Amino acid sequence: KVYVAKIEGILEPQQIKALVNGVVFDKHKSAPAKVKILKTNKRKNTQIVQLTIHEGHYHQVKKMFKAVGHPVQKLSRERYAFLDLQSLTSGEYRELSLKEVDRLKHLD
Q1: What is the pTM of this model?
Q2: pLDDT of residue 63 exceeding 70
Q3: What is the DSSP string of 6-42?
Q4: Across the chain, how many H-helices and E-strands are there?
Q5: Which residue, 27, 82, 90, 100, shows the most beta carbons closer than 10 Å to its own?
Q6: From CA 1, how far away is CA 106, in angstroms rounded?
Q7: How far apart are CA 89 and CA 7, in angstroms?
Q8: Burial class (CB in 10 A: 0-12, 13-18, 19+), 49
Q9: Domain 2-105, CATH number (from 1.10.3210.10, 2.80.10.50, 3.30.70.1560, 3.60.40.10)
C-alpha cells in the first residue's frame, strides 16, 4: 500500500530511520516501511511524504507519523498492490477486470 501524506513539521534523519525500521503505536510495532520525501515547505513547516507499508492496521499511517512527532494533515492512498489509483479523480471508481480480481485473491 502506497500513501502520500502531508505532515506537520519536517522529518529529521532519525525519524525517517524510525519509520523505516518500524515504530511502536497502540502496543504494536509496525513492519518496516519505505519513506520518500516528495516536497518540503520550510515556510509553512510541512512536508509531503510517500510511505509504503505492507500492513493495514486502523489509521496506521496517521499513527506512525504521530509516533515520530509529525501529525498528518492530509492523507491519500495512491496504490494498493498492483492497482494504481492516480488515474482516478476523487470519488471516481472503475470496475476491476476478472484478471485483477483473480490477482487480488492470490495476494499473500
Answers
A1: 0.79
A2: yes
A3: EEES---HHHHHHHHH--EETTEEPPP-EEEEEEEET
A4: 3, 7
A5: 100
A6: 16
A7: 22
A8: buried
A9: 3.30.70.1560
